[in-house]
Protein: N-succinylornithine carbamoyltransferase
Amino acid sequence: MKHFTSVHDVSDIKALVKQALEYKADPYKDQRLGSRKRIGMLFLNPSMRTRLSTQVAAQQLGMDAVVFNVGSEGWSLEFEEGAIMNGTTVEHVKDAAPIMGKYFDILCIRTFPSLKDRDADYSEFYINQFIKYAGIPIVSLESATLHPLQSLTDIVTITEAISGPGFQPKTVNRKPKVVLTWAPHVKPLPQCVANSFAQWVNTWGEAEFVITHPAGYELDEQFTKGATIMHDQNAALKDADFVYVKNWSEFRDYGMISCTDTSWMLTNEKLALTNQAKVMHCLPVRRNVELSDEVLDGPNSLVTTQAGNRVWAAQAVLAELVR
Ligand SMILES: NCCC[C@H](NC(=O)CCC(=O)O)C(=O)O
Ligand SMILES: NC(=O)OP(=O)(O)O
Structure:
């Protein structure tokens, strides 16, 4: 693995999931693997889970992690080739990234989309500039279109749940039914988590995968191809074993919100349509907008386990890059 910015960087998903679960069983088994290695973590946007879980993962491998909230504390970066820098940006990524390449062995970056310019966002303009100029492995901590550390975690979480004693598929030998459902929100959010989840589940190939959303919220087909897409949420939820709840803004009418229908919120009434599905969400979650309290606080919620698993996914990825 050279970089970790999408599922395409992974040659064997199942092996990486296995590695993550091995770290969960024995967190310090490779505590010297990353000795004398250092990761830099650049945040152009806020984070709680990604930041803390990746730091913990690095520590468990014996690596140092340096966090830089570049969005709020650093010089504002210029990314445009040939820019005449007589405005508000202070330093070009061409100058900054190679220096970070000297300080660190691996550079991890969070950079959200603008949700204004679809072509620029979907070209992954910002993270690709770091790949071009830093000269060291780059790890996405959520980029303009994808969130691969989250998606690896999600596959780890599903794998763990279906291997456990409590899992009862509807029919024997059936792949688990995984439903990604759109949920309402108060503001336009990136498509990253949904794109990435779809990309990973499709590549993994071990689920019967359904995506449900209101008309107009179709995601980019490059990520969803292979999934069944339905506009009827109740029909989609039937017999689901896992329900992944996420809001995203529109891809076609880019960054827009055309649906404010609160009935898309996942409630216990909707959960009753499923095969006692486990409920997932990447967090942070808007309670009683995306998901009801009763679901989040109820026995079907996997969200805390899922967020806890972020550590093992990050540890597996860092270990692979160090190796
Ligand atoms: N990293 C996980 C999700 C990050 C981001 N959510 C947010 O921005 C939520 C903000 C809010 O609820 O106001 C997203 O959906 O891609
Ligand atoms: N799920 C996730 O990426 O959370 P943070 O935004 O808190 O890192």
In short: The pocket of phosphoric acid mono(formamide)ester (ligand 2) is lined by residues 47-51, 142, 150, 282-284 (CB under 6 Å).
